[in-house]
Amino acid sequence: MPKRPLTSNYGQRSNPFVWTVAIVCTIIAIAVIISGIAVFSVYMIYRPKMPYLVVAAAHLNNLGYDNQFQTMDVDMSVTVLAENTNSKVDASFSNVALSVRFHRMDIARLQAWPFQVERNSSRMLDYPVRSTPIPLDSGAMNEVALAINRGVINFGIYGKARTRWRVGIFRSVKFWTHLSCRLQFFIDNGTATGRDCSSKTL
């Protein structure tokens, strides 16, 4: 049986396209590694913290309830703080969209134009909440009647905001921060419990 001759690739030229692809991939890999090291180094230097919202104060000025027409009207004041605890970077807030709820119903919307909060500071957002008479279903009516008997009524503040800060020379980093707070108001004097509820970044 005839033997096949032995062959060798030694001395043959490699395809220039293969070398080009290998060089490009190597450059990209090195760039990714350097970028990762740079971002990590800047993060360790700045150690940025997430900006957030906090319900700093709330007061129930008046609660109106009409059993005959099955409606309720609310007059309250809410103060929300936009906090930036970073010592080296400023933060900005946008798309602030909060709502005051009672019995799964939105009774008021709290919004704000985009704004900036300097490092290690906060910005106060004061909201006067004055609703028109709100139609109530049977469940909401029962909840109001029970609250009046107890002298305490529950409201919630829910929503989100877009936060952003810039780290060093790199592009700004954006996050959503979500607020979910339950407030209890004493009907006789309007004071609230459950304040200092802060938002969470997701």
End-to-end C-alpha gap = 73 Å
Rg, Å, rounded: 30 Å
Helix content: 10-25%
Strand/helix succession:
HEEEEEEEHEEEEE
User: Which parts are unreliable, with pLDDT below 50 for 5 consecutive residues or more?
Assistant: 6-11
Average of pLDDT: 84
Shape: elongated
Number of helices: 2
Summarize the biggest pleated sheet.
7 strands, antiparallel
Total beta-strand segments: 12
Q: Kindly name the structural category.
A: alpha+beta
How large a portion of the residues is in β-strands, by DSSP E?
Answer: over 45%
Subcellular location: Membrane
Organism: Rhynchospora pubera
Keywords: Kinase, Membrane, Receptor, Transferase, Transmembrane, Transmembrane helix
Transmembrane segments: 20-46
Task: Describe the protein.
The structure is a single chain. The protein is α+β, with helices and mostly antiparallel strands. Helix content is 22%, strand content 50%. It contains 2 helices and 12 strands; from the N terminus they run H-E-E-E-E-E-E-E-H-E-E-E-E-E. Strands 3, 4, 5, 8, 9, 10 and 12 form a 7-stranded antiparallel sheet that branches. Strands 1, 2, 6, 7 and 11 form a 5-stranded antiparallel sheet that branches. The longest helix is centred in the first third of the chain and has 31 residues. This is Proline-rich receptor-like kinase. GO terms for molecular function: kinase activity. InterPro entries: NDR1-like (IPR044839).
